[in-house]
Specification:
It is built from five helices and eight strands. It has 175 residues and is an alpha+beta fold. The radius of gyration is 25 Å and the shape is flat. 16% of the residues are buried.
């Protein structure tokens, strides 16, 4: 869906409020299909020269399954954003961008925001969905504190992971 930004061209540097409903197609995340609904971008936009700044918040609900018990999980998200789009014309020179950096472009008086919505939502997803702290399938797993204070580490606090290799090197030198 397109956002009409023609008012920003007529009133440079003037913040103009907007609300934009969007749809994000189902995404395959680590083998699980995650769906989104209620996708809303709300905020302001303003233009100056060939640049258009759009800022505000994305709100939506992601739907997945609990990593422990596979119950459906709803994950509400609110993601702030502040992006600059560059107007592309046939006379626009391609500026150098650092490798891996994404450049947002638009043509004419309308801006496509679907890719921005999808990017913001997917980057905000948790590593795994969990139905709650009291999930029966996750109740028996060790906590982060337990994992970080593993018994072997307590027994040998002065040992480093590569100390055995260092001992082998020292023994070789003595021979």
């Amino acid at each position: 869906m397109l956002l009409d930004v023609s008012r920003a061209m007529r009133m440079p540097d003037e913040p103009i409020p907007f609300e934009h409903r969007d749809e994000i197609p189902p995404q395959d995340i680590h083998g699980e299909t995650v769906t989104f609904d209620g996708v809303l971008l709300a905020g302001h936009f303003s233009g100056a020269d060939d640049r258009l700044r759009i800022w505000g918040e994305l709100t939506c609900v992601a739907h997945g399954h609990c990593a422990g018990c596979l119950k459906p999980v709803d994950y509400p998200m609110t993601v702030p954003f502040d992006e600059t789009f560059i107007r592309q014309t046939r006379f626009t020179e391609q500026e150098e961008t650092p490798e891996g950096e994404e450049r947002w472009m638009y043509e004419g008086s309308k801006v496509e925001l679907s890719h921005l919505s999808m990017t913001l939502a997917v980057l905000e997803l948790p590593m795994r969905f969990v139905c709650g702290e009291d999930c029966p399938a996750l109740a028996g797993l060790p906590s982060e504190e337990t994992l970080s204070s593993h018994a072997c580490q307590k027994d040998m606090p002065d040992q480093h992971p590569f100390s055995a290799l260092q001992q082998l090197l020292t023994k070789d030198q003595e021979v």
